[in-house]
Amino acid sequence: MKITGIRLTEVQGRLEHEGRFWEERLVRPVDVYADQRSEGPPPLARLSERVNRVTSIFLEVLTDGSLTGLSGPVGADQAWVIDRQLKGLVIGQDPLAIERIWDRLYRFAVHGRKGVVMQAISVIDCALWDLKGKWANAPVYQLLGGPMRDGLPAYASALGCSVRPDDAARRARELVDQGYTATKWFFRHGPGDGKAGMDLNITLTRALREAVGKDVDLMLDAWMSWDVPYLTQIAPALAEASPRWLEEPVLPDRIASYAEIRRRVPFPVAGGEHEYTRWGCKQLLDAGAVDVLQPDIYWAGGISELLKICALASTYDVQVVPHGHSTPATAHALFAQPAQLCPYIEYLVKWNEIHQLFFRQPLKPINGRIVPPDRPGMGMELDETKIEQRREVSS
Ligand SMILES: [Mg+2]
Fold first, then answer.
1. How much distance in Å is there from the Cα of 167 to the middle of ligand 1?
2. What is the pLDDT of residue 208?
């Protein structure tokens, strides 16, 4: 079997939602600049009061047989890199020899070890695993040695939800009522917002802990936007809420700051969402920078690379809870990992409404758990009835 092409298709459909979909955005590192700080959450294209327009790009690996591999949605910048730079290296290859293809792409893209090119390699890798699962007529996790458990506890990640304390408390209680035993919330304020912003962050944290009670894991995410002095000041108040972890307190390159924060604060520190490959993650592990490592399968090198990162992290006794860009790809990888190493799967409650919109059978938690899908490959099939327009974006 040989790969004959990579097809990138942009599809459009509609997402029904009462009111504004993205209610709030998280704090960003660039918010130290006042003009950036005042920007609101990104609007979805709206067709009417209740209907939003969603546009996604999907990648298919085509072969000279009947098998194809699917992954996505893929970012437009990644699609461009795949079409213009990487496609030629993949065509003509044996699609089952995934390790060989990964290594060829990695050795070719020497400027792409981190960032958009590694994201592009990641989604090609995931499409190849989908194809291999279909070839074997088995779910991907079976090819990887799973399932190791009959369900993955999902933590509900509240990206895009309002962080007004009353709204957040109500939503957090709803998530617990839906069966989640853990939920993650995102701060809106950082060093640029002064003491008033810090007080709002603290008020939010207290409201959330009070809302969910003491037995639910509460995670907090600073999305790379704080620094060591800010952390030193806010840590005692956050500690009162006993967070399961504080995520990405500083920019990814500031590994020494991570380690310093981890020494200073009395709760676990998580990071690695914006790190790439086993070599990037190893730097965080060697520095003692994180208690929880969070590579994203669609960014850090695909399923093939996540397996290596998990093996590496296990030698440091550091847990891996991947960032949840793609729920299907992440679930298949985690069903082949032990619960002690990978205790949770992240489920972004709003993001998945967009990311899995075009799937015939979206993979969603039931009562806070994701159960192993039994369909071959990743089990991701596009639902033609949800696609209103399509166009090929590959050359
Ligand atoms: Mg995060």
1. 21
2. 98
325 is catalytic: no
Q: Which of 137, 168, 190 is the last residue of a domain?
A: 137
The CATH number covering residue 260 comes to: 3.20.20.120
Ligand 1 is an ion; residues with CB less than 5 A from it:
221, 247, 273
| Residue 337 maps to a domain | yes
Collect the ranges in the chain with pLDDT lower than 70. none
How many structural domains comprise the chain?
2
Beta carbons of 323 and 273 less than 8 angstroms apart: yes
For residue 49, the model assigns a pLDDT of 85
Q: Enter the pTM of the model.
A: 0.97
Task: Collect contacts of 235-242 with beta carbons under 8 A, ≥24 apart.
Answer: 235/264, 235/265, 235/266, 235/267, 237/202, 237/205, 237/206, 238/202, 238/205, 238/265, 238/267, 239/265, 239/266, 239/267, 240/206, 240/209, 241/205, 241/206, 241/208, 241/209, 242/209, 242/214, 242/218, 242/267
Q: Exactly one of 323, 325, 332, 355 is catalytic; which is it?
A: 323
Span 243-273, pLDDT tens digits:
999 999 999 999 999 999 999 999 999 999 9
Whether residues 76 and 56 fall in one domain: yes
Rounded to the nearest angstrom, the distance between the alpha carbon of 375 and the centre of ligand 1 is: 29
What is residue 203's predicted lDDT score, i.e. its pLDDT? 98
In the chain, the percentage of residues whose pLDDT exceeds 90 is: 96
Model confidence pLDDT, tens digit, residues 98-136: 999 999 999 999 999 999 999 999 999 999 999 999 999
Amino acid at the residue 84: R
Positive/negative CA dihedral, 223, 228, 229, 234: positive
Question: Would you list the DSSP string of 20-47?
Answer: -S-------GGGGSHHHHT--PPPPEES
* CA distances to 23, 162, 179 from 167, in Å: 10, 6, 19
Residues 186 and 269 in one domain: yes
d(CA 46, ligand 1 centre) in Å: 27
